[in-house]
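Board notes (copied after class):
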Amino acid sequence: MASYTVNRRGVAQARKLIKAKQYVLNSNWGDVQPKAESENAFLKEHSWHDYSGWFLGLTEGAPEEAKARYAFVYGDLRRLHRSGLIACIYRAAEWRHKEVERAAYRLLQELDAATS
C-alpha cells in the first residue's frame, strides 16, 4: 500500500478557495471528479505546481512531475467540492491515512463554518 504525506500546497489552495467562495456545496462527486482527460487538458495549460494544488496527499517516493505523485483530489480543477472533501475523508479513513483524513476533515469544518 502506498504511503502519503499531507500536501500543504493543496491544503492552502483549498483554504483560499473557501475564502474566495469558489466552491460547490451540492454535487455528485462521481460525476464531477476530474477524469484523466480533464487532468491532461489541465496540465497542457498549467504547471505541475498548479496541478499539485488540487490534491491533499502526496505519494511518498513518486516523482514530482507525475500524476501518481498526487492523491486525494478535492475539486474539479476549477472549484472545491464539498463532496470531494467528504470523499477524501472516507478514502483516507478506509486506508488508514490518518494525516490526510484529518486535513480533509479540518477543511470540511472550515467550509461548513463559512457557509452556515
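Comment from the instructor: The first helix runs from residue 8 to 19. The chain has one domain: 4-115.
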